[in-house]
């Protein structure tokens, strides 16, 4: 509902996740517990939830999974936001604390692609020809190259601005990508357009200049290549990045398209969200701990960034101490 408070709004991809988690739970109730009819109230029956968690771990998977952690997190959100139940929340939180964290299902190194590599992929994708050179080539001359231009600009923008996938997908001309009073390109997202709609009781705003290096590519894309994509669609979308059919990206389509491109160049199982981790990691390492800038660029709280990336400061600690002691020993001689 549009009138719902920002902190209570859920996006379609979140609702989809909730639905998948609920389907598993209600499947257990119907087929294992033989309960009928099923109601929404069954989600808030602790004994049933507890039985499901133990069945899921001990009989279905024989281990703790990310899915069961996510299910309990989902219930904790429901009992805080939509059906407040402090007593049940305490019991659910206690239950969740008894579950060890699941082992990672994949090695992050298998998906890790450096920002420099992402930059090179973007450069290699950018069209070398102009549409007027392609008039005799097919029914829609230049459309494939126009799509390549969109993907090239997208990948290179990620190198400079570690936006969440949804912000890349939903970025619109004038609304988000616009020129300021001085004629400079900027990218601005506000409130519900961001994952965290409010900060310290105020609307959250992310307002950053468009990377200066990429402005010539942006302006060529907007004037030359994007119009070719729009010709394919019956709707004149304001979205900055468009599919080859001239339509806005859906989450699965953007993930699949970018993963395919990066995999074809690197053989890595890259995905869009990991660019945020790569950006923060490379920045913090290079700056020897500039967490504040990382928090601004990620549009996360400083506490969240410290919690996730503080371990980077522990790298090479012994080696750094050894070098310092060697330097002091040299001065003492």
Layout: helices, strands, pairs:
Layout: H1 12-31, H2 46-61, H3 66-82, H4 86-97, H5 115-125, H6 143-160, H7 165-170, E1 177-179, E2 185-190, E3 198-199, E4 202-203, E5 205-209, H8 215-231, H9 251-266, H10 274-286, H11 291-298, H12 302-309, H13 317-332
Antiparallel strand pairs: 1-2, 2-5, 3-4
Describe the structure.
The chain is mainly alpha-helical. It has three domains: 6-97, no CATH class; 111-274, hpI Integrase, Chain A (Orthogonal Bundle); 279-332, no CATH class. Helices cover 53% and strands 5% of the residues. It has helices at residues 12-31, 46-61, 66-82, 86-97, 115-125, 143-160, 165-170, 215-231, 251-266, 274-286, 291-298, 302-309, 317-332, and strands at 177-179, 185-190, 198-199, 202-203, 205-209. Strands 1-2-5 form a three-stranded antiparallel β-sheet, with no helix packed on it. The model has no long low-confidence stretch (mean pLDDT 87).
How would you summarize what this structure contains?
The termini are far apart. It contains 13 helices and five strands. With 333 residues, it is mainly alpha-helical.
CATH architecture of the largest domain: Orthogonal Bundle
The CATH homologous superfamily of the largest domain corresponds to: Intergrase catalytic core
For the report, how would you describe the main beta sheet? 3 strands, antiparallel
Proportion of residues in β-strands = 5-15%
Q: What's the level 1 CATH class of the largest domain?
A: Mainly Alpha
Q: Which strands sit side by side, in order, in the main sheet? A: 1-2-5
- Give me the number of helical elements: 13
User: What structural class should be given to the helix and strand makeup?
Assistant: mainly alpha
Radius of gyration: 24 Å
- Total domain modules: 3
Compute the average pLDDT: 87
- Helix percent reads 40-55%
Stretches where pLDDT is under 50 for at least 5 consecutive residues are: none
β-strand number: 5
Coarse shape: globular
CATH topology assignment of the largest domain: hpI Integrase, Chain A
Tell me the span between the first and last alpha carbons.
Answer: 74 Å
SSE string: HHHHHHHEEEEEHHHHHH
């Amino acid at each position: 509902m549009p009138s719902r408070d920002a902190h209570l709004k859920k996006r379609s991809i979140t609702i989809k996740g909730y639905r998948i988690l609920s389907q598993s739970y209600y499947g257990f109730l119907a087929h294992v517990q033989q309960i009928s009819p099923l109601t929404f109230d069954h989600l808030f029956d602790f004994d049933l939830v507890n039985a499901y968690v133990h069945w899921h771990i001990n009989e279905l998977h024989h281990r703790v999974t990310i899915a069961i952690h996510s299910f309990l997190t989902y219930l904790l959100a429901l009992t805080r936001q939509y059906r407040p139940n402090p007593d049940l929340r305490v019991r659910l939180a206690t239950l969740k604390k008894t579950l060890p964290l699941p082992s990672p299902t994949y090695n992050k190194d298998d998906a890790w692609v450096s920002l420099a590599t992402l930059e090179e992929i973007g450069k290699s994708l950018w069209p070398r020809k102009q549409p007027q050179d392609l008039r005799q080539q097919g029914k829609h001359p230049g459309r494939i190259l126009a799509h390549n231009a969109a993907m090239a600009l997208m990948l290179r923008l990620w190198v400079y601005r570690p936006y969440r996938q949804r912000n890349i997908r939903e970025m619109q001309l004038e609304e988000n990508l616009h020129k300021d009073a001085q004629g400079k390109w900027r990218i601005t997202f506000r409130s519900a357009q961001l994952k965290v709609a409010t900060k310290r009781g105020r609307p959250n705003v992310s307002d950053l200049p468009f990377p200066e290096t990429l402005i010539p590519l942006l302006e060529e894309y907007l004037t030359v290549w994007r119009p070719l994509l729009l010709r394919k669609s019956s709707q004149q979308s304001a979205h900055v990045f468009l599919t080859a059919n001239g339509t806005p990206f859906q989450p699965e389509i953007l993930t699949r398209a970018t993963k395919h491109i990066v995999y074809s160049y690197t053989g890595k199982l890259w995905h869009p969200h990991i660019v945020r981790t790569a950006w923060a990691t490379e920045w913090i390492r290079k700056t020897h701990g500039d967490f504040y800038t990382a928090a601004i660029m990620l549009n996360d709280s400083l506490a969240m960034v410290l919690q996730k990336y503080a371990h980077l400061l522990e790298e090479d600690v012994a080696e750094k101490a050894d070098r310092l002691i060697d330097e002091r020993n040299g001065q003492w001689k």
